[in-house]
Design goal:
Structural class: mainly beta
Order of helices and strands: EEEEEEEEEEE
Largest sheet: 7 strands, mixed
Shape: globular
Radius of gyration: 13 Å
Distance between the termini: 40 Å
Number of strands: 11
Strand content: over 45%
């Protein structure tokens, strides 16, 4: 059964860093485009980054460009999001998702991990 499990969230002060991980199983991870999404309280789900199967292509939302870095380890079926210079407005539940950000729905999405940026 296909599954995505996020980890690495927590409480961090503004300006701090966190690294999120997403463990994938049950599908051909190495050829799948992968994404990070987030949903802040009271707001809609927001796409923030994606990466191609071979990791040759990455893209970021303007809100995180220059601060966040997406990466993957296809040998370990792992997706990562390095988050630096965190801001209070980065507080959200972060999800990893499989599929194209241009599709009408995600093929698969994890349960999410909470990131709280607060002093």
């Amino acid at each position: 059964q296909a599954q995505l499990v996020e980890s690495g969230g927590g409480l961090v002060q503004p300006g701090g860093s966190l690294r999120l991980s997403c463990a994938a199983s049950g599908f051909r991870f190495g050829i799948s485009p992968m994404n990070w999404l987030r949903q802040a309280p009271g707001k809609e789900l927001e796409w923030i980054s994606d990466i191609s199967g071979g990791a040759g292509y990455t893209a970021y939302a303007d809100s995180v460009k220059g601060r966040f870095t997406i990466s993957r380890d296809n040998a370990k079926n792992m997706l990562y999001l390095q988050m630096n210079s965190l801001k209070v407005e980065d507080t959200a539940v972060y999800y990893c998702a499989k599929g194209s950000r241009y599709a009408s729905t995600w093929d698969l999405r994890g349960q999410g991990t909470q990131v709280t940026v607060s002093s």
